[in-house]
Design a protein that fits this description.
It is a single chain. The chain is of the alpha+beta class and 209 residues long. It has five helices and eleven strands. The strands form three sheets. A six-stranded mixed beta sheet has the order 8-7-6-9-11-10, with helices on one face. It has a three-stranded antiparallel beta sheet with strand order 3-4-5. A hairpin with a 3-residue loop joins β4 and β5. The chain is elongated. The relative contact order is 0.13.
Length: 209
């Protein structure tokens, strides 16, 4: 077998470099330091927005590019967090997606490169995700309230049947041009089902757990 040296190590964030308490353990920090000392570059890929990744990048001293929002935004830390590239949704497409989400009685969440917007501050799982990602959400009423390009849209509900039906419709209309992912999180004794829509390029695969 041909021997090849490892030059890059890419990791997810939640459930990998972060422990169940959403903390970086000393052992993880030392492991990343050993990789970098050996000349192996280290990078992160996460569904978190850039702000939710920033403290992790700083704590691990990640020097190369990382992918936030499932690859919708590529970032690097210099003296500050710098956006290298982003892939946004066209406003007309974003509006149609939000309309579909609302028709199925899901709460739309919108992510831009810098901020997180929710239709209801007291909506399902907003508080949990704010603590989870260390972000403060902003409430919006219409897409016109958001000035930055939209990177990712999520539809959130505890009604699994409604989310599945919404995802089916989104796939029928957009699966050939956008990434649509159905995800489930168990929170306490309940299950939160959410559908995510983003534009991360034709190289991305649609993943349905």
């Amino acid at each position: 077998m041909e021997h090849r040296e490892i030059c890059l190590f890419i990791s997810d964030v939640d459930g990998t470099v972060l422990n169940p308490q959403k903390e970086l353990s000393p052992a993880t920090i030392k492991a990343v330091q050993r990789l970098q000392s050996a000349g192996i570059h280290f990078s992160l890929v996460s569904n978190r927005p850039p702000k939710g990744l920033e403290w992790i990048i700083e704590a691990l001293d990640v020097r190369g590019a990382c992918a936030a929002l499932n690859g919708g935004v590529i970032i690097v830390r210099d003296s500050t967090l710098t956006i290298l590239s982003e892939r946004s949704l066209r406003p007309a497409v974003a509006q149609e997606i939000i309309g579909t989400i609302e028709r199925y009685a899901l709460d739309p969440w919108i992510y831009t490169r810098a901020e997180w917007y929710v239709s209801r501050i007291d909506g399902p799982h907003v508080r949990h995700d704010a603590e989870f990602a260390q972000l403060s959400p902003h409430q919006f009423e219409t897409l016109g309230d958001i000035s930055e390009p939209v990177i990712k849209i999520m539809g959130v509900s505890d009604n699994c049947a409604q989310v599945s039906a919404c995802e089916d419709e989104l796939r029928r209309h957009f699966a050939d041009q956008l990434v649509i992912r159905l995800g489930t999180r168990v929170i306490g004794s309940g299950e939160s089902l959410r559908s995510e829509v983003m534009n991360t390029g034709k190289w991305s695969r649609v993943v349905t757990p």
